[in-house]
Amino acid sequence: MLNANRMATNIRRLAHELKRHQLIVDPSRWILYEAASNIESGPPDKWEIYIHPEQPLEFVKAESDPRLKPDIFCAIKATNQDNWPVSYLRLVLRVWSTRPEISFRSDWDSEEVKQKFDRLHSYKRVMFRCHYDNCSQNQHAPIFHLQFGGDPKNGEFCWFPHFLELPHFPSPPIDLVLACEHVVATFFPSAYRELCQNRTWISIIRESESFFMRKFYGICERHFTRVSQDQTFLEHLCSHGRTFSASLS
Predict the structure, then answer these.
(1) Omega of the bond leading into 66 within 30 degrees of 0 (cis)
(2) Residue 31 near residue 51, CB atoms below 8 Å
(3) What is the pLDDT of residues 45-56, one digit of tens each?
């Protein structure tokens, strides 16, 4: 069990490592420290992480493509139940452009879009948006899943229509720590290679892997080892999604 004190400690260690490698803007370090303090202020076994979309965890310009800047915001609620590590999971990853040649498509975007950029004196725009989610009540979907698009916030000018809710791609549950690992590996490969030699970084990642993913991969393994073969893997995950949502009702 990853209790509140341990999770708060890991969030602070995460902030230190990301800042030490100059991967996040300075205000984001304090956003992580505040998230850690909020975790400690709640129940030890039912902690919550909340990072507001208006004050996300903001990374610097990507090493792999300096025209892009990723950020993350999330709401995650841990549970004291043995069956499931979380009772609520929603983590959003956005990739922003600040360059006009990417943000504005003259052949596709309306003049109104350009006028908005001109008024703001900025070409900042969300070019990619996805979120990790858990199955909700009355939803036929994998227990944990990945979706693209979603409900854009003010100022995103996101390309994806907000009303598209499908499809749901099966995914393991992912927390803030694991999401940061994905961002660093994808957008900052040099720093990621260094961090993979760092024992502190590895221990942070491994603890989140164990807490958030162990149950999910146990479910996956049972599908491939069960005697009965009357169910596909996708339906296996969807049936656990129904069990998950029912257990939280």
Answers:
(1) no
(2) yes
(3) 889 999 999 999
What Å distances lie between residue 138 and 73, 134, 166, 233, 243, CA to CA?
26, 12, 15, 20, 11
How do residues 101-112 score in pLDDT, each as one tens digit?
A: 766 666 666 666
Q: Considering Cα of 203, then 2, then 173, then 14, what sign does the dihedral take? A: negative
Question: Confidence band (pLDDT; 50, 70, 90) for 136?
Answer: confident
Cα(first)–Cα(last) distance of the chain, in Å?
A: 22
Residues 92 and 129: beta-carbon distance below 8 Å: yes
pTM: 0.88
Cα–Cα–Cα angle for 158, 97, 179, rounded to 5 degrees = 80
145-154 long-range contacts (CB < 8 A, ≥24 apart) are 145/169, 145/170, 145/171, 146/170, 146/171, 150/92, 152/126, 153/53, 153/54
Q: How many other CB atoms are there within 10 angstroms of residue 39's CB atom? A: 25
How far does Cα 248 stand from its chain's mean position? 22
Token pair belonging to 7: 């999770």
